[in-house]
Amino acid sequence: MSSILLRLEKIRKTFPGVIANDDVNLEIRTGEIHALLGENGAGKTSLMNCVYGIYRPDYGKIYWKGKEVHIHQSRDAIGLGIGMVHQHFMLVPPLTVTENVILGLPSAREPFLNLAEAEAKIRASAKRFHLDVDPKAKIWDLPVGVQQRVEILKALYRQAELLILDEPTAVLTPGEVAELFKVLKSLTEFGLSIIFISHKLDEVMALSDRITILRNGRVVDTVTKENTSPNELARKMVGREVFLKFQKPEQQPGDVILSVENISALDNRRLPAVKNISFSIRRGEILAVAGVDGNGQTELAEVLAGMRPSINGKLRIHGVDATNQSPHKILKMNVSYIPPDRQHVGLLMDFSVRENIIGKSFWEKPYTRGGVLQKRPIQQYVDHCISKYDIRTTSPNLKARLLSGGNQQKVVLARELSRKPDLIIASQATRGLDISATEYVNQQMLAARQDGAAILLISSDLEEIFSLADRIAVMYKGEIMGILPVQNADLHLLGEMMAGVRRLKSIGEPEIIGEDTGKV
Amino acid sequence: MKTAESLQQTWRLFLSRSSNLLIPILAILGAFLISGLLIIAWGSNPLEAYTALWSGAFGSLASIATTLTRLTPLIFTGLAVTYGYRSGFFNIGAEGQLYLGAYSVVWIGVTFSDWPGWLIILMGILAAGLSGAFAALLPGLLKAGRGINEVLTTLLINYLIIQFFEWGLRVDHVSKELDQKWTIINWIGLKDAAQPYPKSALIPESSWLPSLSSVLNSEFFTTLFGDAGWFQNLVSSPALTRITLAPVLGLVAILVVYFILFRTTVGFRARAVGVNPEAARYMGIDINRTIVSSALISGALAGLAGAMEILGSQHRIIPNFLLNAGFEGIPVAMIGQLNPLGVGVSALFFGALRAGANRMQIISGVPTHLVFVIQALAILFAVAGTTIHLTKKKLRPRIENHRHENTQVSPEDKVTDA
Amino acid sequence: MLEQLWEILLSVDFYVAIIRMTGPLLLAAMGGLIAERTGVITFSMEAMMLLGAVGGVIGSGVFGNAWIGLLTAVMGGMMVGLVFALMAVTFGANQIVTSVALNIGALGLSSLLFAMVFTARGEAVRTTITVPSLSEWRIPLLADIPIIGPIFFHHLPLVYFAFLMVFVVWYVLFRTTWGLKIRAVGEHPQAADTLGIRVARVRYLALLFTGAMAGLAGAFLSIGVLNTFQENMASGRGFIAYTAIVFGKWQPLGVLLGTLLFGAADALQLRIQARGLPIPYQLMVAFPYLVTLLVLVFFVGKATWPASYGSPFARENK
User: Fold this and answer.
1) Is the Cβ–Cβ distance between A238 and A465 less than 8 Å?
2) Does B416 contact A at CB distance below 8 Å?
3) What is the predicted pLDDT for the residue at C144?
4) Is the pLDDT of residue A289 over 70?
5) Engineered SS bond to A291: which of A277, A295, B188, B242, CB 3.0-4.6 Å?
6) Residue environment code for A149-181, b if the CB has 16+ CB neighbours within 10 A, otherwise e
């Protein structure tokens, strides 16, 4: 009979203007593997950071083994027996495994280290828990999968009874994932409990005993594996019924503007992220890319924008080969790119609104003559953009950092859309925005569509996708599971494709030849 | 637009604008205050000391001339550091670049001593700029290509240049008067062959920057004011020859750098890369090219500092001819809030301190070294003030609503199996 | 000329000089290395040496004992270390600018303090003085070994201390929990923080250590070698110590080599100048810098410098 190891009661955590977790109740039993499932921004990591002492909840209680505890820093959590393996490892690369494991712990004869003794203990631990690791190796010489094992060993060395893993499979190859799951299952046999944060449905189904789904900072439900399916999980993760907000005007798409053939690309960890993707987009058409975040969509967008090399395949814009061209050249082909991270990549936060708006046009006439920026044309252009895109700012000289998120995104839109692009790549353009800002962005997308732009819209918001798309492509693990016209798509079907459970037989063109075409 | 939001924005705009002025002013005041305590410890009267300091810097024509002379190289090195830093390239090798620039100017002047004065000035300035840029080229390339920290590289090259300078100062330069065997080394060295001391010959007087004295002594002014007593007094003052075109060129440089930074595409790219290289890349800017070009411009400005000192003031090089002006460019730039206009004011502060120090010592007995302490305190206070201010800014909440804040997902809304 | 050069290189006195000139560099560099390893730029060692030099003279002159002078020298250096730590660690200010400010200020403050302490009322401002200084220790037996003896075993106690510190620093860095914390803070302060290590505390203590060691280095110059204080006594040795750390790629043995290189260059160029040899002695002085630059350009590896070099550490918003 297992008991309750950790209990969270009515946890609430907010940041300036953002509610990360609200009224969260969670129970973790001894010896179970409990998954925390949810989209990006659902609040999974911030919740666990509260448990691990990195954040302090604004409200709510934490009970450990039945007693209320106050966790103010990671040290406290470690002292209780909680260990956490973060997405970005907390390992010191030039130090050895042993040094990393014993870091911060007092030695028997302070300050002298007994490395040999520690090594022996680590070897024993590694053997016991099936975590093969060379204690003398330096972290930066080790493959990522092994580094992860060190992180786990670190926790076990500190007598962890609860192990939290934040998106552990994001950095692993499929083989390493299987290894990890074996290790985790065996750990539970030793009595450990495991919290497994993920957004990957199949893994969650394979590994966990119970699953708690989070959405927008709140708990949607807690289910046991036996009582659920990937489809159900997808639905809970993503939202309920979808209603069309806009009546899209009917439009006949024109000629092909973007043609992608067999593009493949690696992610930042040199693992395959985009695998042989092919599709095309026509003038006046919105192709939406649906999928759980992290399945290669971001990398695909970066390839199209010239920010990431493609390792094979071709991409053509207006029929001209644009494969692996510099961002500047692609810009010149009249392509606009709205990046997902407006704060670090989309905008220059310390530049003014004005400077950001002309950021991609400043070298063109009439804004520049002979290398000198022309004040008047720029001012006119900026004023025009501010009013057209409804940017709320007291002055065009205001630093972008001081604007609200919605307004910042409007600046990005102004910069991108007022260039009258032929091709727009919008990657998570409405992430983190409130309802009115989201609606505004959507309207702008439709307006651009009407003006004849071809748009690739990457989004994890199905509501948005259903409202805007002419066709919907679903990406799963770097591949396209299918492309279908929006009339033929429904939540059920999309959910299956997003979960990797269904693949459409003929990928790429409007006709679906599948098992059953579930209609709305 | 919501009033609350607009009010908040206006307040923040005001704060960010005025902080640029407030922080340096408060820092300087604080520095004087604390140093006042030291003066008391020394046994003198702070007010007397500071008054003497002021008069030593601005009290007479001679004082003003000294102040202007001291501040001119600081303007250029301050601009050099400012431009580089704004572009993400922290140039701390300005000292060496300055030395190299001065060396080139003297070399031109001494080698081509029969050229007309204006040509020597022109070519000298050109050579100084080019050599300063050259000194910064390698660090720029290393940073762009290999990501090697430019602080380390500019520093090391700085020391190498200074040794070269020391060597060149002791090797006879080819001299037409003396009939000796000259080798190629003598074309590089700069020592005055006629003298036993390690210093160069003077550059021809025609190439000295015109001074206020020559301007006022020209026909135009003598006919205009010739008989007036005050004019006679003014013109006969020896200090007038020390006020040259150099500080005017410094002012020009400030305006030019301001223009480049804020009104040209070159400056736009430089600043964008300095703010956020990754975002700049997304905007299609070639980061590597920008880094190298910023390094070159920064180095050129520092080289010009040396040129101004030679053409406008010393007219030759001697050992330690301008100690520390390169490194001082860093605090000048920082206190000037990395703005060319601010650099001008900041250089004025530093120049005035140096100029007034002697008088302060003579009148109140406080050793000139106190001036270094005042400088240091001002920099420390300014830097601390700026960082504290910036940290506060970043932590201030912005108005950002979470995605579905207004749609309450109540417990009953759990999705049931369809 | 070649014979003269050979003569220099073969003289015992040359090698004694190398060791002696390396002394202050080694003291400062070993102190700086610890702080550098925590990720802090110790460009302000020059200021620490200056205040250490004047502190040494003041302590020795006022109390009549050179050993008290060492104590006050350490205090002087540590003061600079403390101010720097306040600026760089607590305020998160730019470390290069702060270092430049401290170097400028120390230049003035050291001369000012000297004048303040040693100028009697009504007298002209003092600029030199003779104070009790340290004397060399001759290690019996070992110093009698021909050649090796006088080179290594007849020096100021500070020299022995300096070389001892190479071993101590190495041991602390790689064989103690302190060293582990130091290296972790330098490479990945966030990781160290999550494990309960107080990053700020580690950096403060490290900088105090640097101040103490650089202060001793300054004392070496004032009460060890010259028995007095001169304006700008350090003459850039603080910068040399910093460069030696870069040359040594932040490893104790490498730093030792670097300081020896600079010490040798210094000893050689002095002798070349003294004999009026037609070799440009500036080449000697420049040589170590050139080698350091080459090391940087060609031998930059995964962790040449600590990963968090120069960056202030701030905890994520709670």
Assistant:
1) no
2) no
3) 76
4) yes
5) A295
6) bbbbbbbbbbebbbbbbbbbbebbeeebbebbb
Count CB atoms within 10 A of the CB of residue A280. Answer: 17
- Cα C283–C289–C294 angle (5° rounding)? 110
> What would the pLDDT profile of A139-194 be if each residue is shown by its tens digit?
999 988 899 999 999 999 999 999 999 989 877 777 788 889 999 999 999 889 99
Burial class (CB in 10 A: 0-12, 13-18, 19+), C296: buried
Chain C hits for A113, CB-CB cut-off 8 Å, are 175-177, 180
Could you write out the DSSP letters of every residue in B177-199?
Answer: SS-----HHHHH--B-TT-SSS-
Token pair belonging to A372: 């000198």
User: For residues A54 and A231, is the Cβ–Cβ distance under 8 A?
Assistant: no
- In angstroms, the CA A328 to CA B282 distance is 8
d(CA B150, CA B274): 14
Is 80 exceeded by the pLDDT of residue C288? yes
Name the burial class of residue A66, with classes exposed (0-12), middle (13-18) and buried (19+) by CB atoms within 10 angstroms of its CB.
exposed
Query: By CA distance, what is C190's nearest residue in A?
Result: A90
A210-215 and A218-224 strand pairing: antiparallel
Residue C258 · residue C224 · CB < 8 Å: no
In which band, very low, low, confident or very high, does the pLDDT at B396 lie, cut at 50, 70 and 90?
very low
- DSSP β-bridge partners for residue C178: none
Structure tokens at A123: 């070897």
Mean pLDDT confidence for B186-197: 85
pTM of the model: 0.86
Tens-digit pLDDT profile for residues A90-146: 999 999 999 999 998 988 887 888 889 999 999 999 998 888 899 999 999 998 889
pLDDT digits (tens, 9 = 90+) for A473-519: 999 889 999 998 988 887 778 878 887 778 887 654 433 333 333 33
Q: What is the DSSP letter of C90?
A: I
pLDDT for residue A264: 94
Rounded Cα distance between A188 and A196, Å, is: 13
The half-sphere exposure of A262 on its side-chain side, counting CA atoms within 13 A, is 4
CB contact under 8 A, A94 and C195: no
Question: Are A345 and B279 a contacting pair at CB < 8 A?
Answer: yes
Locate tokens 């009582």: which residue? A227
Q: Find out whether B84 and B90 touch, Cβ atoms under 8 Å.
A: yes
Q: Which of C101, C108, C115 sits opposite B379 (nearest CB)?
A: C101
Count of all residues that appear for chain B in the document: 418
Note whether A397 and A383 are within 8 A (CB).
no
CA dist C70 and B272 (Å) reads 50
Query: Chain A: nearest CA to C304, how far in angstroms?
Result: 11
Distance CA B4, CA B9 (A): 9
3-class state of residue B201 by DSSP: coil
Full set of structural domains in chain A with CATH: 4-238 (3.40.50.300), 243-334+421-520 (3.40.50.300), 341-419 (no CATH)
Cα A413 from Cα C141, distance rounded (Å): 82
Q: How far apart are CA B290 and CA B270, in angstroms?
A: 6
Q: Decide: C242 and C60 in contact? Cβ < 8 Å.
A: no
Tokens of B400: 């950002």
Cα separation of A159 and A194, whole Å? Answer: 14
ipTM, interface predicted TM-score of the complex: 0.90
pLDDT score of B37: 93
Question: Of C239, C290, C317, which has the smallest distance from its Cβ to B395's Cβ?
Answer: C317
A187: its two tokens = 């750990």
Q: Domains in chain C, please, with CATH?
A: 2-119+149-298 (1.10.3470)
Residue C122's pLDDT is what? 59
List, as ranges, residues 90-129 from C with C-beta within 8 Å of B.
91-94, 96-98, 100-109, 111-112, 115-116, 121, 125
| Domain positions in chain B | 71-209+244-352
- pLDDT of the residue at A96: 95
Average model confidence (pLDDT) across chain A = 86
